[in-house]
Automatic annotation (TrEMBL):
Keywords: Acute phase, HDL. This is Serum amyloid A protein. Major acute phase reactant. Apolipoprotein of the HDL complex. SMART domains: SAA (SM00197). InterPro entries: Serum_amyloid_A, Synovial_Prolif_Regulator. Residues 134-152 have a biased composition (Basic and acidic residues). It comes from Microtus ochrogaster (Prairie vole). Belongs to the SAA family.
Amino acid sequence: MQDQKGDFSTSQVTVYIGSPSHISSASNTSCSPEVSAGTDSPSRMKPSIAIILCLLVLGVDSQRWLEFIKEAGQGTRDMWRAYTDMREANWIGADKYFHARGNYDAARRGPGGVWAAEVLSDLRENIQSLIGRGHEDSMADQEANRWGRSGKDPNYYRPKGLPDKY
């Protein structure tokens, strides 16, 4: 900090490692700010470590993890395309078809695409259930999601009259 004369002053900072409860109040007579970096403070995991742990949990071997990530990205794009097509079509009764198609396209990418389709489908349905959408409709959407991910033809859910563009 700079005082009124333009001189810089320093402040003393005391860092305690461990729980500060073992320090008596008599030893703390200065008016300087203190920072406690004990075991009571929450730690943050770096994103790169979190990604590696996720990949290990998923059982992806070290030689295939880049391919897995590529497939997951492509699968995510497939899911997004199905979602935007559904919004564009705005066709009554077509949502199950678009669910099945997005999951089908993503799953064809490989294990990463299957993983992306499952995560995104579950996330979407969980969000929809939080905002009060019907349980039966959510279960029907999940059935269409599983149908598409299993490699079955999404046209099973295609409503009559839906333009061939979709």
